[in-house]
Design a protein that fits this description.
Radius of gyration: 19 Å
Number of helices: 13
Distance between the termini: 36 Å
Oligomer: single chain
Strand content: 5-15%
Shape: globular
Largest sheet: 3 strands, antiparallel
Structural class: mainly alpha
Length: 261
């Protein structure tokens, strides 16, 4: 199945397996661009260079990474950063953005349900609350890979909340609470380049719902743009309805290379 054909497919397997932040970083740090994705993942299975605790977990890591990423294509900048030892705290939010290019359910959950709860002043969320959201995903134009049992729905709801915890949007065990999330400066600049790569106009970059992945409103984005303009990290000008945004590099790959130069 290609990425385009599964764009709105909600995968229970990948969500339940979790964010796999450290595992993904370790695999990408050892990635060989001269080999195919299959060859790299075969080497992971054979050598277990991430120190997986069991053959089953090692197999699951390889399967999820195969599903989520295209290291020779759209996800190459993310791999480059890991290979050069880019700090994990700054790399983590970039992983969330790249992961949600394929993980429809994670993207939709955070952009719509979780952000709406946050924006509405909700302080705590529970697995039971997310189960209601999962009951509505068909109305959002999504399909599941197979019919979900009640138990699967509960596991997916818990998995979505755990992913949000792993990416620093929530904290807690049974009942989750929102935390004050801050997107690092270099991560913010990277995401600006990534959105521009998608040919978004400056005004649409600011208003993009993808900032909700990081619990940011358009006003938060504009505030950070003004701050970075003040420190000459980019150029941001607004004149009426006209918005001008000039970034340091011409592409995400170029910016990733600069980040680790």
């Amino acid at each position: 199945m290609t990425s385009s054909s599964r764009a709105n497919v909600a995968s229970s397997f990948t969500v339940v397996k979790g964010a796999m932040i450290e595992e993904t970083y370790a695999v990408f740090a050892a990635w060989d661009f001269e080999c195919s994705k299959r060859e790299n993942l075969d080497r992971l299975r054979h050598e277990n260079f991430i120190g997986a605790s069991s053959a089953t977990w090692l197999r699951d890591v390889a399967k999820v990474l195969n599903r989520r990423f295209e290291p020779a294509g759209r996800d190459k900048p993310l791999v480059l950063l890991a290979k050069h030892g880019f700090p994990l705290d700054e790399w983590r939010p970039l992983l969330l953005w790249h992961l949600t290019r394929d993980e429809f359910l994670v993207r939709d959950f955070i952009e719509t349900w979780l952000f709406a709860a946050y924006d509405g002043g909700t302080f705590r969320v529970r697995t039971e609350d997310v189960e209601g959201y999962l009951g509505s995903i068909a109305r959002r134009g999504a399909t599941t890979e197979h019919a979900w049992s009640v138990q699967t729905t509960k596991r997916v709801a818990a998995g979505l909340l755990k992913i949000a915890v792993d990416f620093g949007l929530l904290r807690g065990s049974i009942t989750k609470e929102f935390v004050s999330f801050h997107l690092p400066e270099k991560s913010f600049l990277y995401l600006l380049h990534a959105m521009r790569d998608e040919k978004l106009a400056p005004s649409k970059v600011i208003a993009s719902p993808e900032w909700r992945l990081f619990l940011m409103r358009p006003a938060d984005v504009e505030h950070e743009l003004l701050r970075l303009h003040q420190y000459r990290k980019l150029e941001y000008q607004v004149a009426g309805s006209l918005v001008q945004l000039s970034l340091p590099c011409t592409s995400t790959c170029e910016y990733a290379e600069r980040m680790v130069a």
